[in-house]
Amino acid sequence: MKTKRLLLLIAMLCVVAALAVVLLLARANKGEVIVKNAATESIVQCHIEICSQSFDLGSIAPSESKKATYKVRGTSHYAVSLQFESGKKISKNLAYVTHGLDFRDLLNVNDNDIFLQESTNCKNLDRNLDCMSAVYNPDGSIAKPVK
């Protein structure tokens, strides 16, 4: 009788441990991308693709920003296309994300370009756990690494 109870207890502990591992592995990493319009004219259309997800941010007035939240489903980059009020269009692939980390990226749009201005990646963005950040120059060089 004691052996049956012991085996049942061990089996239940194994099930609980297996469920804990599944839940831990199933946590989808998240990403946030913020598009800041630092141009002199309004953006009338802004589209971003990342990790097989698409976002239409619509219009963004000068000095304003819009944010999209996505699931990090592997290694990917931002495919950004936008159109200004004047009809001028800019498209660019930039930055990257990878599974296993959460990301918060700030993309800056000026009159002629889109560039990664700031990037933060963490094991858990919500809890600010093991984060690394960097601020970038428009040419892509690191202006200020931050821990």
Question: Mind explaining what this structure looks like?
Answer:
The chain contains 1 helix and 10 strands. The chain has one domain: Sandwich (Immunoglobulin-like), CATH 2.60.40. Helix content is 17%, strand content 50%. It has a 6-stranded mixed β-sheet, with no helix packed on it. A 4-stranded antiparallel β-sheet has the order 3-2-5-6, with no helix packed on it. It is elongated and about 80 Å long. The protein is an alpha+beta fold and 147 residues long.
Question: Short description, anyone?
Answer:
With 147 residues, the chain is an alpha+beta fold.
| Total helical elements | 1
Write the CATH fold name: Immunoglobulin-like
Major beta sheet, strand line-up? 4-1-7-8-9-10
CATH homology superfamily: Domain of unknown function DUF5300
Protein topology:
Elements: H1 2-26, E1 29-37, E2 43-50, E3 53-56, E4 65-72, E5 76-84, E6 89-97, E7 102-109, E8 114-122, E9 132-136, E10 142-146
Parallel strand pairs: 1-7
Antiparallel strand pairs: 1-4, 2-3, 2-5, 5-6, 7-8, 8-9, 9-10
Structural descriptors:
Immunoglobulin-like, elongated, 6-stranded mixed β-sheet, 1 helix, single chain, alpha+beta, 4-stranded antiparallel β-sheet, 147 residues
